[in-house]
Amino acid sequence: MSSSATMKLAQSETRLFLRDPIALFFGLVFPSVLLLALGYFFPGFGDEPAADLGGLRYIDTYTPIAIGLGLATLGLVTLPPILGTYRQFGILRRLRTTPVHPARLLWALMALHIVVAVLALIAAMTVSIVAFDVVFPENFVAFVLVFLLSAASIFSVGLLVGAIARTTSSGAAIGMSIYFPFLFLGGVWIPRQVMPDGLRFVSDLTPLGAAVGAMDDAWFSGTVDVAHLLVMAVYVVVVGLLAIRVFRWE
Amino acid sequence: MAVIEVENLIKNYGGTNVVDGISFGVEAGEIFGIVGPNGAGKTTTVESVSGLRVPDGGSISVLGLDPQRDHYEVAQRVGVQLQESRLQDKIRVHEALELYASFYDTPADWGSLLDRLGLEGKANAGYSSLSGGQKQRLAIALALIGTPEIAILDELTTGLDPQARRDVWGTIEQIRDSGVTVVLVTHFMEEAERLCDRIMVVDQGRVLALDTPSGLIKRIGAGQVIRFRPSAEVADSELSALPGVEGVLRKGEMVEIAGTDDAVHAVTSFLAQRQIIAHELRIEQNSLEDAYLALTKEGK
């Protein structure tokens, strides 16, 4: 049974995800829609390089920001309420009475979220490159690895929220209360390049700030700042392990 | 042969023993009932048996296995329906059954399971569109999907309307008839009396009694209440003098006589002799509910 049960769980979670139009929109297409809206409707976004962005256009800078925002949406808006619901409904508790440990359900959910994140990434990259002539990432391999580490660090935070949320609504509320500060520090309203030094330092210490910074570097200069990687790795290890430790099955 | 053996089970929450030395055995093929007031420790007991709770003391053997150490094997052979547990709103009935079937080595055929539980035609229905009774029958189906030897059903009929409850009772009898041992937690005495071969009465974490339904009723005396409206005057003193009569009460035109089995025969032949007709005659026997109330009151 073992591998087939995990496959069945992943299949079931995928179906349920596809039946949730809100999760589907925000998880899968929101980053692309945001880029299209910014590029087409904000004056000057796709035109001239801006001096304060180090010679990049706004649409260039916003491409890794939108991708990071997509990760945060999946990790902090979509994932925690699902875990809160499964706890509230006794679904995790019910699984514990079967031969399959409910941890399998968590892995199935995480895998699903990573797959959706990759699809959202492909969509957003396509939009930027095709519609707005954004350059192809300078160091594509580094960019992909940075993206996966970013996903792991942000989802670890979401997993921690989901580990303790008792209900759907508490999962949503705690997730949201982290989501918006993360977006701010990730540069959604003020890109990191134009943040005051103090603010950018705080941004560097958050998973989304480090993720956007590292994706921006890998994409446009082909370099990677080890500090960003370190910050994200610490979130994966410390927050991820904490989530596993405090996880409540009921 | 005992399929479940619990010895001196203890479970402590926040300094109090919610289960305080419970012992019982469940025989293969029976419907074993656990009844008791809210907070008596019923759910904690069956959750310990299913391996969800780690006992603080005592021992549990299920099919000769330890629910903690041999969790996988026990879970393969014991199906569980948990109190207050539900499924995702958007999952369809057949999807839930196929998913749970994939967890077991020897899954049942979910199609015939649906037919047996009266859910035929519901395979494609979403969970949230099911009625309360249908959700409970689906919960039973999920408990049976692994072809278990034991089914543990916790407060299965709470919140159901009387018709749905009766339908579920029929289902439980079918399960037993198919050879599955059933452990049923309930607080409906009518349900326990109708379904269970043996009943354990639990209060404040202890076993108050463990007997057949009729055995429990006998413990409080085989009491009868004879109630009727006599067609002609009859004196209380004459009725009280009859063998087996323990008390006579008047409620308006109605006479209520409490007594033993003998009283029924004595009163009816006395009335026949006097050519008095007993209108609206009712004879009520002590029910399991009376026995339960007497037992749990004693325990306080």
Considering the chains and any ligands shown, give keywords for the structure.
heterodimer; A: 250 residues; mainly alpha; 10 helices; 77% helix; B: 300 residues; alpha/beta; Rossmann fold; Alpha-Beta Plaits; 6-stranded mixed beta sheet; 4-stranded antiparallel beta sheet; 11 helices; 13 strands; 30% strand; elongated
Low-confidence stretches of chain B: none
Which outline of chain A best applies?
globular
Would you count the extended β strands of chain B for me?
Answer: 13
CATH class of the largest domain in chain B: Alpha Beta
Tally of DSSP β-strands of chain A: 0
Task: Provide the number of structural domains of chain B.
Answer: 2
Radius of gyration of chain B, CA atoms, in whole angstroms:
24 Å
Percent of residues of chain B in beta strands? 25-35%
Strand content of chain A: under 5%
Element-by-element helix/strand order of chain A: HHHHHHHHHH
SSE-based structural type of chain B: alpha/beta
Average predicted confidence as pLDDT of chain A? 93
Structural class of chain A: mainly alpha
Report the CATH superfamily of the largest domain in chain B. P-loop containing nucleotide triphosphate hydrolases
Q: Using the CA coordinates, give the radius of gyration of chain A.
A: 18 Å
Q: What can be said about the biggest beta sheet of chain A?
A: none
Helical content of chain A stands at: over 70%
In the CATH scheme, what's the topology name of the largest domain in chain B?
Answer: Rossmann fold
Q: Rough shape of chain B?
A: elongated
Explain this structure.
The complex is a heterodimer of chains A (250) and B (300). Chain A is mostly helical and 250 residues long. Chain A has one domain (2-246). Chain A is built from ten helices and no strands. In chain A, helix 2 runs parallel beside helix 5 (103-132). The longest helix of chain A is centred in the first third of the chain and has 31 residues, at 58-88. The radius of gyration of chain A is 18 Å and the shape is globular. The two termini of chain A are 25 Å apart. The mean pLDDT of chain A is 93. Chain B is of the alpha/beta class and 300 residues long. Chain B folds into two domains: 2-211, 3-Layer(aba) Sandwich (Rossmann fold); 221-299, 2-Layer Sandwich (Alpha-Beta Plaits). Chain B has helices at 42-49, 71-77, 93-101, 110-116, 132-144, 162-177, 189-195, 213-219, 236-240, 261-273, 288-299; strands at 2-13, 16-27, 31-35, 57-62, 78-81, 150-154, 181-185, 198-203, 206-211, 224-230, 245-251, 254-259, 278-285. In chain B, the strands form three sheets. In chain B, strands 5-6-7-3-8-9 form a six-stranded mixed β-sheet, with helices on both faces. A four-stranded antiparallel β-sheet of chain B has the order 11-12-10-13. A three-stranded antiparallel β-sheet of chain B has the order 2-1-4, covered by helices on one side. The radius of gyration of chain B is 24 Å and the shape is elongated. The chains are: A mainly alpha (250), B alpha/beta (300). At the A-B interface, helix 1 and helix 4 of A face helix 2 and helix 3 of B.
